[in-house]
């Protein structure tokens, strides 16, 4: 929906405080849906995970999980910082900022979830300290963090989006965090979690991940709706140059995540190969390009049957539907791989 009142556009500089008449009711609807999707960390039961960690995981499994939770230790904090420093001030509609405020709460909730996860999985204070320092000390995680920070810092100096180039740079930042970070880095992490669950392991982590996954899906949906709205209002921004930059950025994200996969799987996790993980990353990257209306680059198919459909509670499209199937707690699992 395009802006109508005074011909204002979503990325026009300023501070619109008026909710009536509402220019973008779709963002208000997303905010209301997000309020329904409330869960708490205290609902996640890690008791069986502790048993699994103590007696059921192989050394290769432990290496993979330790690296994964080390990434979780700071991943959502990076997203939250970009939201506050770069997104909120430029998306100039109060109803959209209401959603961003809710998203910031959800990012804090995810940080709390992963803090609780690390406290549970790594009871040794020294091991926990290493996990929280991973962005500096573990090369495969530092590479991902550097990728995130590069794009976060790319528009840090912009106080307002005055020029076409400013607005294109803003869109690239938004697309990066929606499709590369939340939509690729986090979705790859979910695959490792659901792989373990397919083996009957770490069910507490999987249960919490279901809720995090739903939140992240909605965050991506919101960001892509912002992109669609801006494209409708300012179609000249979506030029060949921008699309080429987006495609290159996704290529770089795939490479970063592949390096991380090589680290996680370096000790030989039975049933999960680096080749299959690379194919999965390319498959997800193609899905993100499709969401942006861009052609696929890899032609990859999903290699993981365990990701095709979690025990069905919802089979509707994550990125088009309004979420209403859970209010506080959720029983059952989620459809991960519905057609986009």
Describe the overall structure.
- There is one protein chain.
- With 340 residues, the protein is mainly α.
- The chain has a single domain (27-308), classed as Ribonucleotide Reductase, subunit A.
- Helices cover 64% and strands 0% of the residues.
- The chain has twelve helices and no strands.
- The protein has helices at residues 25-36, 47-55, 59-87, 94-121, 125-132, 134-137, 139-153, 164-198, 203-233, 240-264, 274-291, 305-308.
- Residues 1-5 and 310-340 have low confidence and may be disordered.
- The count of domains is 1
Order of helical and strand elements: HHHHHHHHHHHH
The structural class is: mainly alpha
* CATH topology descriptor: Ribonucleotide Reductase, subunit A
Number of helices: 12
Helical amount:
55-70%
**Highest-level CATH class:** Mainly Alpha
CATH architecture: Orthogonal Bundle
How many angstroms does the end-to-end distance come to? 21 Å
Mean pLDDT: 89
Topology:
Layout: H1 25-36, H2 47-55, H3 59-87, H4 94-121, H5 125-132, H6 134-137, H7 139-153, H8 164-198, H9 203-233, H10 240-264, H11 274-291, H12 305-308
Helix pairs in contact: 1-4, 3-4, 3-7, 3-8, 4-9, 7-8, 7-10, 8-9, 8-10, 8-11, 10-11
């Amino acid at each position: 929906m395009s802006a109508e009142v005074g011909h204002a556009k979503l990325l026009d500089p300023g501070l619109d405080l008026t909710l009536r008449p509402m220019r973008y009711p779709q963002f208000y609807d997303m905010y209301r849906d997000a309020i329904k999707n409330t869960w708490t960390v205290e609902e996640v039961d890690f008791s069986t995970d502790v048993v699994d960690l103590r007696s059921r995981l192989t050394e290769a499994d432990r290496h993979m999980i330790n690296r994964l939770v080390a990434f979780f230790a700071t991943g959502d904090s990076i997203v939250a910082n970009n939201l506050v420093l770069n997104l909120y001030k430029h998306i100039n509609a109060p109803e959209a900022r209401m959603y961003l405020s809710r998203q910031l709460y959800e990012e804090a909730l995810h940080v709390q979830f992963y803090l609780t996860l690390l406290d549970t999985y790594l009871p040794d204070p020294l091991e926990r300290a290493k996990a929280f320092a991973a962005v500096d000390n573990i090369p495969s995680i530092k590479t991902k963090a550097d990728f995130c920070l590069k794009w976060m810092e790319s528009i840090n100096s912009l106080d307002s989006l005055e020029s076409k180039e400013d607005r294109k740079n803003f869109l690239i930042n938004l697309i990066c965090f929606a499709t590369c970070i939340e939509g690729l880095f986090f979705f790859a992490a979910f695959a490792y979690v659901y792989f373990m669950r397919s083996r009957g392991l770490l069910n507490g982590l999987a249960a919490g991940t279901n809720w995090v996954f739903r939140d992240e899906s909605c965050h991506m949906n919101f960001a892509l709706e912002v992109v669609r709205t801006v494209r409708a209002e300012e179609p000249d921004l979506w030029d060949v140059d921008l699309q080429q930059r987006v495609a290159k950025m996704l290529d770089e994200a795939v490479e970063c995540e592949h390096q991380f996969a090589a680290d996680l799987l370096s000790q030989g996790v039975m049933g999960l190969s680096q080749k299959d993980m690379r194919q999965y990353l390319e498959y997800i990257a193609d899905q993100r390009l499709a969401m942006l209306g861009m052609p696929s680059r890899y032609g990859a198919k999903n290699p993981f049957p365990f990701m095709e459909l979690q025990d069905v509670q919802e089979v509707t499209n994550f990125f088009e539907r309004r979420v209403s199937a859970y209010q506080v707690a959720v029983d059952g699992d989620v459809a991960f791989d519905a057609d986009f």
